């Protein structure tokens, strides 16, 4: 089978790898790089669990091939924070109980990070619009909305 060489920066680290042309970016991240924080739910781009940042923009990693990431920068949830130093969004999700099983949480976080950078004081409606492509089957959305508002407050006080 033909492979292609790709050079992609993931979470600030440059990787050069040989990949099959039809390898999904989500599978590349999870299986080739071991970044299992990117979850795969529907594999149709509907649930948002696989959301990553592609050159800073939220994107469904199950909808693009790894070869399309050649020359680009990808950020996964692993780069957001650490257990010792969480991102304000992660802290807020924890404090507001905005997750239950947590399967969808990485997708929400990676969708909301750039949203809060451009919407530092979001309304409930703006938050609902921002997360309308992310599905949560456990918690519901009220705690998530409360967490986003708390994260916005935390980010405002830290800047």
Automatic annotation (TrEMBL):
Q: Which domain of life is it from?
A: Bacteria
Q: Where is the 2Fe-2S ferredoxin-type domain?
A: 4-80
The yes or no answer to whether the keyword Iron-sulfur is present is: yes
Which SUPFAM superfamilies does the UniProt entry name for this protein?
A: 2Fe-2S ferredoxin-like, CO dehydrogenase ISP C-domain like
| Annotated CDD domains | fer2
E.C. number(s) listed in UniProt = 1.2.99.2
The pathway entry for this protein reads as: Alkaloid degradation; nicotine degradation
Q: Respond yes or no to whether keyword Iron-sulfur is given for this record.
A: yes
**Any idea which GO molecular function terms this record carries?**
2 iron, 2 sulfur cluster binding; metal ion binding; oxidoreductase activity
Q: What is this protein called?
A: Carbon monoxide dehydrogenase small chain
Species annotation: Anaerolinea thermophila (strain DSM 14523 / JCM 11388 / NBRC 100420 / UNI-1)
């Amino acid at each position: 089978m033909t492979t292609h060489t790709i050079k992609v920066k993931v979470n600030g680290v440059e990787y050069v790898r040989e990949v099959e042309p039809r390898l999904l970016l989500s599978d590349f991240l999870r299986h080739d790089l071991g970044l299992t924080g990117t979850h795969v739910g529907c594999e149709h781009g509907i649930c948002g669990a696989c959301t990553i940042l592609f050159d800073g923009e939220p994107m469904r990693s199950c909808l693009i091939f790894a070869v399309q990431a050649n020359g680009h920068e990808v950020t996964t949830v692993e780069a957001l924070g650490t257990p010792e130093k969480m991102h304000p969004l992660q802290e807020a999700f924890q404090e507001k109980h905005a997750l239950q099983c947590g399967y969808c949480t990485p997708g929400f976080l990676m969708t909301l990070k750039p949203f809060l950078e451009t919407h530092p004081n979001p309304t409930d409606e703006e938050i609902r619009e921002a997360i309308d492509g992310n599905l949560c089957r456990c918690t519901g959305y009220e705690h998530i909305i409360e967490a986003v508002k708390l994260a916005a407050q935390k980010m405002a006080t830290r800047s």
